[in-house]
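FW: tagging you since you asked about this chain on Friday. Here's the raw sequence from the shared folder, copied in full. Didn't touch anything.
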Amino acid sequence: MQKEKYRLESDLKNAELKLILLFEELILLQSMESRDQELMAQLGQCKQQSDMISQSIKDITTDLAKKTKEIDEIREK
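HL: got it, structure written out here
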């Protein structure tokens, strides 16, 4: 019975240490949550900017093609 008691006490201490570690990890994650939300907001803004830039590139490419076509037509005359 004594050996089983020591084993159970050891298991209980290990469980307590694991619980403490998990609690500390939870506190760490909670402290990082606001920064994570800020970074997610920045990511959303960057994606919007990227989409806008891509659209601008498409528009400029289309305009360039039109102007090139106009120049070619003028040269042919």
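FW: The mean pLDDT is 96.
HL: agreed, and DSSP finds one helix and no strands in the chain.
FW: great, closing this out.
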